[in-house]
Amino acid sequence: MAAAAAAAAHVLVFPFPLQGHINCMLPFATALAAAGVLVTFLHSDHNLRRLGPASTPDGPHSQRLRFLSVPDGLPDNDPRSVGGLLELVESLQAVASVAFRALLASLLSTKSPSRADHHDAADSGSGFPPVSCVVADGYLPWAIDVADELAVPVLAFHTSSACSILAFLSAPRLFELGDLPFPAGGDLDEPVHGVPGMESFLRRRDLPSSFRRAGEHGVNPRLRVLVKDTSRSSGKARALIFNTADSLERSALAHIAPHMRDVFAVGPLHAMFPAAAIAKSLWREDDGCVAWLDGQADRSVVYVSLGSLAVMSHEQFTEFLSGLVAAGYPFLWVLRPDMVGASQDAVFQEVARATGDGDQARVVAWAPQRDVLRHRAVGCFLTHAGWNSILEAVLEGVPMVCWPFFADQQINSRFVGAVWRNGLDMKDVCERAVVEKTVREAMESDETRQSAEALAEQVKRDIADGGSSAMEFKRLVSFIRELSS
Ligand code: UDX
């Protein structure tokens, strides 16, 4: 019976089409395939084109994993960066949702989708049975609705931290208690009381960034919609899947679980199931920076990366640059082409000038981040506190300096600074003297390094055989097989 159910399980995995979401949902899809489940991974047409032929699966489980795509509705030259995120959200809702409904309907019959309608990157897909379950990104509530309407069991995958989702789910209580909206011009260091388990350390400034906007401009209608959609779609899902570990977010997970049908904490997925054989980067990785790191002393380098979406003003860039130079350590800085207003060449030249054209700095457009964080030369990570970046640094025991930018990053960085104590939270400050001092402290503090190393050990236990994440993943595979039988 179990074998028959396993043969029938075919999961459609649909991430929000951005780098940070692909980076954890792709290892998840690979892991399902490795566990014997058939998986269709749904990209946007734009991303699948950018990933190119290397996105075709390779390796032992490739016959169980295929890639399809739907349009995101934006022109190809749209940067799809944080400035245009709302356009992407709206365009997906208007265009991708229609294509998704048609695709899912076709995948529910035994007939494979026609190549003319959907880009099929892998021939291995033909012969897949009908889709038996959908795992949709929690930030695609309409995808959860569509699956539900077509009577397919659907699970919501949250690529953000559990603590940030708990904050969203707590929004009604925050309004009820008067924590929200913030009074105009009010003190952002005031504690907030409405997020369970976080009363002793959460301040207004640590809530996800959309809550803050609610304070500046009255109750932001977009926040209301976001909160409503997240809660509604999470409630509709058969289960919530988190890319987190019990030892990191036990309390948040425990507060979410009673309100959901089921909750699975199966991360950090990149470490449990590296999808090495499949291209996942939308930018070309500059491998030269690893050779540069090879020439640096142990724990001497500051790695600076603000993820795939954050952009900074030229003024902020200058403050960071001056602070990094003054801190005196060599640094490796990822500056994507769309990241600072000025042209990339000009920005790279400014870094070269500030460091006297010497070897103190290496600037790249995109780094192989996991290899960098694993490198013995890296002493600390100046990060925007995106959830993938945090998990990647946690696993390597690298101390962090957090400069959160938006979304869940504000609450993630509070956990780094005040709960796990594996780094320092520089939120809302962008001054060269503070950058210099905070970087020095992260590089030199034995206490922070010890906390980072202890946390890495704990999380490694979670993902090892018999650990909580490994066990939860097994339970999830059984759950999906049961839903599919
Ligand atoms: C976003 C949100 O910021 C994040 O908080 C949310 O949880 C997921 O979506 P992003 O801003 O890109 O993602 O940050 P992050 O979650 O850290 O993901 C960035 C990914 O890109 C990481 O996996 C990182 O390893 C990778 N990366 C980044 C590279 O491979 N090379 C780089 O040079 C920079």
TrEMBL record:
It comes from Urochloa decumbens. It is an enzyme of class 2 (transferase). GO terms for molecular function: glycosyltransferase activity. InterPro entries: UDP_glucos_trans, UDP_glycos_trans_CS. Keywords: Glycosyltransferase, Transferase. This is Glycosyltransferase. CDD domains: GT1_Gtf-like (cd03784). PANTHER family: GLUCOSYL/GLUCURONOSYL TRANSFERASES, GLYCOSYLTRANSFERASE. Its EC number is 2.4.1.-. Belongs to the UDP-glycosyltransferase family.
